[in-house]
Amino acid sequence: MKAGRQDYSMLSPRRPLTLSLLHSPASWLASAAFVLSILIIRLPLEYSLGLLVGTGLLAASAWEPAIGLSLAISLGPAKAYLAAARPDLPADWGQIFFAFAAAGWLARGALNRKIIIPYVGLFLPLGLYIGVGLFSLLPALSIEEGLKEALKWIEIAVGMVILITEMERGRVRWIIGGILVAGLIQAAIGVWQFEFREKGPEAFRILGTHYRAYGTFEQPNPYGGFLGLIWPLAAGLAIESMKEAGRRKPASLLLASSSFLLASSFMLASLYFSFSRGAWLGAAAAGLAMAVALPRRWPVGVGLALAAFGTGFALLRAGLIPASIANRLAEAADFVAVTDVRGANINDLNFAIVERLAHWQAAQAMAQANPWLGVGLGNYAAAYPQFRLFNWENALGHAHMIYLNVLAETGVLGLMTYVILWGSIIALTIRATSRTTGTARGLALGLLGAWTHLSLHQIVDNLYVNNIHFLIAGLLALLTYASRPPKDTARV
Predict the structure, then answer these.
(1) 273: closest CA among 194, 352, 189?
(2) What is the pLDDT of residues 222-237, one digit of tens each?
(3) Given phi > 0 = left and psi -120 to 50 = alpha, else beta, which region is 201?
């Protein structure tokens, strides 16, 4: 507009005033607020409160995607509980918050006329695994189940993109806090279920009057796996905060290290209450891996890990480990190989072990029948009736061993790309532990423990269930941050 000349373009026939008002953000917000107020007035109190809180959280998720993805990580695991306890309500809040976070991130990029996709080296092996998985669906029985499984991995990539860009906006503390809060929420539920619940599922009864902790997962094993991915993160941050406090001794660092240590201990205790052998072994392996990487000199770290392992083994042999732990660990040897369980004598004591081995055997048969591309990504359950053993009709959704499950569903090619993917992730994490300091190194130490837990626990299970993949997306985004932290990053 030239100086001294009035601009009447808003009133011209080419751009009517009424149309611009209808398309303005304020008008949409006013309309939404009006509709929401009517609903709140007319609905019962509990529904009104739920609608008010839910709307506020969804709005916050779209406005700040880091909040949305943190809520997806925290509330995503409630899917199994809500599906069983409240079938009248939407169950998959993890997907809902993820969608709002992604929409908000895209909208902000569109308004700024610039959507930035950060370069992440891990996208190459991740894309390779997704590509092989999609290719394996060509002869699959259920394309729908395969696409659902592929969507998990695509959401991991999308979640990483969003969170990495949010970290570049200074939201790293929010994301770390969201992950730790998610772990603490599940840990608190688990402690209540084990120690204070008067009556629970009879199948989970243990130690007389107690019940195994299972959180909102409805199963102790994935619950223990979820906590097993988070407590090492708090432990790694506690270690680095203590080291920094030892050098500078400010009160804030002492408080931070104490808080991280308490959070890690609380989650580890609740993991123990799950009485999941896979979670216990994964947690032990995670602790040893962190001990190896803790000193700058790897030989010293290996010595620390061997000393810790030797001490634990000696205590076990001397009978100084509580019987509740020793007895369950003694049964772990039954999971070391795929054995033929046809005709096995099934009783209450060995049912869980024989059931798992029967599914391993079915997965092995799938891989032998389809060696290169398997039965199709996500198609273990669909193909199971063709390969199941006589006494085991229920497919249970997966093979309860990730490596056999990947081999059965995507064949040798899929397993190769899966190993390349996680080998790349672990190699990047190890490099980060040796090249970083401060918060970044604390994150790297914790992530090394998390990946170790995931790798070992999944020998006897499949943890990519109940929206755990949102947590994995968050941890992978933190790995990218820890591998190349900005120079001006504030300490956590």
Answers:
(1) 194
(2) 999 999 999 999 999 9
(3) beta
